[in-house]
Structure formats: structure tokens, C-alpha cells
Design goal:
The protein has helices spanning 4-13, 28-37, 52-60, 76-84, 97-103, 117-125, 141-148, 168-172, 188-193, 196-210, and strands at residues 16-20, 42-46, 67-71, 89-91, 109-111, 113-114, 130-133, 156-159, 180-182. The chain is α/β, with parallel strands linked by helices. The protein has one domain (4-198): Aldolase class I (TIM Barrel, Alpha-Beta Barrel). Strand 1, helix 2 (28-37) and strand 2 form a beta-alpha-beta unit. It starts with a helix and ends with a helix.
Length: 213
Amino acid sequence: MKTMTAFRAAIEKAPVVPVLTVHDVSHAEPLGEALARGGLTSVEITLRTPAALEVIRRMGQMDNDLLVGAGTIISEGDVDAALKAGADFLVTPGASPLLLEALGSHDGVILPGVSTVSEAMARFDEGYGVVKFFPAEASGGVNFLKALGGPLPHIDFMPTGGVTPENAADYLALRNVVAVGGSWIASADEMAKGDWDAIADKAAHAVKIGRGG
């Protein structure tokens, strides 16, 4: 896995992280190329399909600077499989005691999911430098994170879940948000049709959003 320094450098350049569910292994290379061509620096591939691990492996072997993470990590088996596939970072929707135990035995970039103040405080105390706020919109959205900025200014968040091109800039304007995760950048229909130009265009637009444009 990559170091947190490398991950933070990547999301500083492009603080929108595509969160994608990929069903076809053959989409790995053209999808990775389209995201990188648009200027994105990271992608989270969810472990929700049989193709996911091979997609992570193939995208990670491409000759570009795209960091390829594994999302929907919910078990020790997921942790081991994602690391064997070469994932640069791991993202979880939440954190059960057993999952925390499995994650604790690995160094590298791990973004555990939180949806409450207590969970955020606990994950920070456990050493996690960035946490995923999920599901962001359903859990209070921008107003929730804005409220946390006063008492918990030391905790950095990556909100995911309900983040769109229309509200991403509102999240990114908050001091405690270092990136957002979004699924809009590559739809299932676009991937199925091989419309990689459309995905590259949306990636480029996401980069502009990240830069305040």
C-alpha cells in the first residue's frame, strides 16, 4: 500500500475520488486511462463484484500515477484479498471490532467509515489520519461536518454517499474535508458502452470542481 503522505499528495492535486463498481475485468485498463487522462489521481474500486480484485490488480499495473484503492472492505478476508491484489489504499463503510483488528495489523492508507461523532473520535484515537464520512448526505451532510469543525478540527474527512457534482464543492469548501468520494464519474451504462471519452470528460470536470472551478 501507499503511504499516507503519497495519498494526501494525490488528493491534494485532485480531491475527488471516483467510487466505482466495475463488473467487467476488460474495463480496467480503458477506465484507468480515462480517469488519468481527465486528471484524476485516485480511484476506489468497490469489492461488490467478482471482477473487482482483478480490476484493482490490472489498474494498479498501468503506467500512470493513478492510486487504486479497494472499497467496501468489510472483513479480514477482504483486507487480505485487496492487499494481495495490490490495492494502494483501503476504504471501509464502517468498522466492526473484528474488522478493526484485521486493519490494525497493516500499515498504509486505511480510511475507515464513520457516521457519528464518537466513531470519528475513536478512529482518530486509533491512529487513522483520514476517515470516510458515510453515508454522507443521509448522515447530515455538509451541515454535520461543518458542526464538527469547531470541536474536532484535527480530524479530516472524505465524505462519500450522495455526493454529486452539484454539492461536491460545498463539501470541499470545509476545512475538515480533504476529498470527496463520488460515483457519478463513470456510470455503469458508460462503462458497458465503452464511452471512455465521456468518462474522461467527467473526470476533467471533477478536477475543476476540486480546484474550485
